[in-house]
Design goal:
There is one protein chain. With 322 residues, the protein is α/β, with parallel strands linked by helices. It has two domains: 2-142 and 231-276, Bacterial extracellular solute-binding protein, family 7 (D-Maltodextrin-Binding Protein, domain 2, 3-Layer(aba) Sandwich); 146-230 and 282-320, Bacterial extracellular solute-binding protein, family 7 (D-Maltodextrin-Binding Protein, domain 2, 3-Layer(aba) Sandwich). The chain has 13 helices and eleven strands. The protein has a five-stranded mixed sheet with strand order 2-1-3-10-4, with helices on both faces. A four-stranded mixed sheet has the order 8-5-9-11. Bound molecules: alpha-D-glucopyranuronic acid. It comes from Hylemonella gracilis ATCC 19624. This is TRAP dicarboxylate transporter subunit Dctp. Pfam families: DctP. One of its GO terms (biological process) is transmembrane transport.
């Protein structure tokens, strides 16, 4: 009788859709503050994931690098200690070699070419390339183009001579800075402000939000728009966490990620305008150097990179994206 009663109750609950669903709790850690467009997009990603999985996947977002630097969080994701993180494609290349194509200089013709490449089969292949390294890319986010900022204007490659420039922890960017004649100093993003302030570094290179949201414009007053790279940010999930999810849950998460990128594109376009005005108000002077001398300086490096057949083929496919 007892057993029959239990079966009846279970049957009723099932019919009412009240059967207790296991909730998959995930943490997403990243290094930007809450007013950054990438943070806002990831909050939307968490909300959409909850909506599309009907509450079965519950993501909490931890900003400000409280869980570690980009590299540290990537390692945690590889080990399944952290489920999701966002990292720049720059440090990602040491985890999965295909990301290198995003770190080479002057690869994209313009923003439209960049967006089309990210949405093309090349973009998806790179996202999938890290599966056997312990994580999978879900979506890209726009991180603008990177330009130099220092205590004096960088109008020609000669102006970089002898300067210690902070770079991301990426061999390709290190090689690029050397090719341009400066001394690369690899450092996590969270250390750059103090590095500039104390003079450990003479300058850095990044998008315009680093000046304001990252506050580097408080201590560095010349931003020279060389636009030498367009390095996307990437939202990645641990391969262990991914494997545990059913196919419909995986599809819901991927959909949420791609939709959050659509929102992020709008937020980014807005931020590029607004943050530039804020940087000018901080006293940052913008200049637009001629690009040709910078392109010429990195030509031998690009020729050497093209000796690698995989990279050459990826670059050709990117160039062919229309
Ligand atoms: C960009 C990028 C970040 C990265 C930072 C850096 O701002 O969006 O993901 O951390 O560059 O230079 O380290």
């Amino acid at each position: 009788m007892k057993a029959r009663y239990a079966t009846l109750v279970a049957g009723l609950l099932l019919a009412l859709g009240l059967n207790a669903q296991a909730v998959e709790k995930m943490r997403l850690g990243h290094n930007q503050p809450e007013d950054h467009p990438v943070h806002k997009a990831m909050v939307r990603f968490a909300e959409l994931t909850k909506q599309y999985t009907k509450g079965e996947v519950d993501i909490s977002v931890f900003p400000n690098g409280v869980l570690g630097s980009e590299r540290e969080m990537l390692e945690q994701v590889q080990n399944g200690i952290l489920q999701i993180t966002k990292a720049s494609a720059s440090p990602l290349e040491t985890f999965s070699a295909s990301y290198k194509v995003f770190n080479l200089p002057f690869v994209f013709r313009d923003k439209d070419h960049f967006y089309k490449t990210l949405a093309s089969p090349v973009g998806e292949e790179v996202l999938a390339s890290s599966r056997n390294r312990g994580f999978i890319g879900l979506t890209y986010y726009d991180s603008g183009s990177r330009s130099f900022y220092a205590k004096r204007p960088i109008n020609t490659p000669d102006d970089l001579h002898g300067l210690k420039i902070r770079v991301q922890q990426s061999p390709t960017t290190i090689a690029m800075i050397k090719a341009l004649g400066a001394t690369p100093t690899p450092m996590a993003y969270g250390e750059v402000y103090t590095g500039l302030q104390t003079g450990v570094i003479d300058g850095a290179e990044n998008n315009v939000t680093a000046l304001t949201i990252g506050r580097h414009g408080e201590v560095t007053k010349f931003y020279s728009e060389t636009e030498h790279q367009m390095v996307p940010d990437v939202l990645v999930i641990s391969a262990m966490s991914w494997a545990k999810l059913s196919q419909p849950l995986q599809a819901a998460i991927k959909k949420a990620a791609l939709e959050s990128f659509e929102l992020q594109k709008q937020l980014w376009a807005e931020a590029e305008k607004v943050e530039r005005v804020k940087a000018e108000a901080l006293g940052v002077k913008f200049s637009r150097p001629a690009k040709a001398p910078f392109v010429a300086k990195v030509k031998p490096m690009m020729d050497a990179e093209r000796q690698n057949a995989v990279i050459a083929s990826l670059l050709d496919r990117i160039a062919a994206v229309k």
